Amino acid sequence: MFVLNTWYVAAWSAEVTRKPVRRVVCKQPIALFRTQDGAAVALADRCAHRAFPLSEGRTVGDSVECGYHGFTSGPDGMCTKVPAQTTIPERARVRKYPLVEKDGWIWVWTGDAELADPADVPDTHWMVDPEWATVTHSVHFKCRTDLIHDNLLDLTHESFLHKTTVGDDYIYEHGITVEVEGNVVSVDRLMPSVEAPPLYAETMDARGLFDRFHCTEFFVPNLHVLHSGISGEGRPREEGYLIKVLNGITPIDEHNSWYYYAFSRNFGVDNAQATQELLVGLATVLDEDAAALEAQEIGMQDRPAGEFDVLIAQDGGVAKARRILAALLKKEQNASPANRTVEPAAPRSA
Ligand code: FES
Ligand SMILES: [Fe+2]
Fold first, then answer.
1. In this structure, is residue 339 part of a structural domain?
2. Are 291 and 164 contained in the same domain?
3. What pLDDT does residue 41 have?
4. Is pLDDT above 90 for 282?
5. Which residues contact 312 (CB under 8 A, 6 or more apart)?
6. Could you tell me which residue ranges the Rieske domain spans (predicted)?
């Protein structure tokens, strides 16, 4: 079960061209392409005629022509041409998804289109801000999205899983502060007077002791923004070397997820060698996460009914986020006509 009334990252802007491309979001196959003026379009990747994937077809003008019998769907999803006859059947249309293109990401709304508000797409401007340098990755994680959310909300795993890159024992030795505002859960960890993590130390030219900080903001259910960095001991965070890690987490199905990752930094912005080192180092971090979560997914599937997670104090953010996610799912279930309890009809008077 997925929260559908939300925006999910479906692709990088550069991946969407005139040639249709397929993405599956919450088990919904979607074809993405651009019209002649460059506007990105998202249609159900299933031809109205006989369900051939539109992404196997080609764009003609602003429409996409099915590669099987040539039905043509306009950017609004309405069929504009049936080559074998002059009349267009009324039902010849495909679902059009609300879409927002912002800061290099293509977001699609998978639920009730009438509820889609582009203003709800979170702030990700660091990815395109010239004051920041950004490296990106996208990775298919063979696990449910829940495991990625938990992973990002409990960064003590860095001490063990990412020892050579961003980890250190001092991470789990410091506690967290958890705050909730609407559907956003923030988990903050301050680590005073510690060394910079190995992956960044050289780029930051940071030797000695600093205050290190992590603050994960989880916009349930689709995006984690990690505000991280180091500053001089006792100094305000804004003065320091700052990192914004944007993690767009998109369900493919119950056991697979897309992970859209952008790492923006405000230091060494013009340092191409640092960018290259970070690109490689962060790929290692993501690979370590992907391997661990794939193994965890298998563990979850093997786990007998009645065995549950053992949550500890460091899971404070995990617990809060799960509660919000459950409430969002329940709200959608209650709102769905298929799930509404049908009131018995009142008996007719004779
Ligand atoms: S399946 Fe697309 S035109 Fe026939
Ligand atoms: Fe990790």
1. no
2. yes
3. 98
4. yes
5. none
6. 7-108
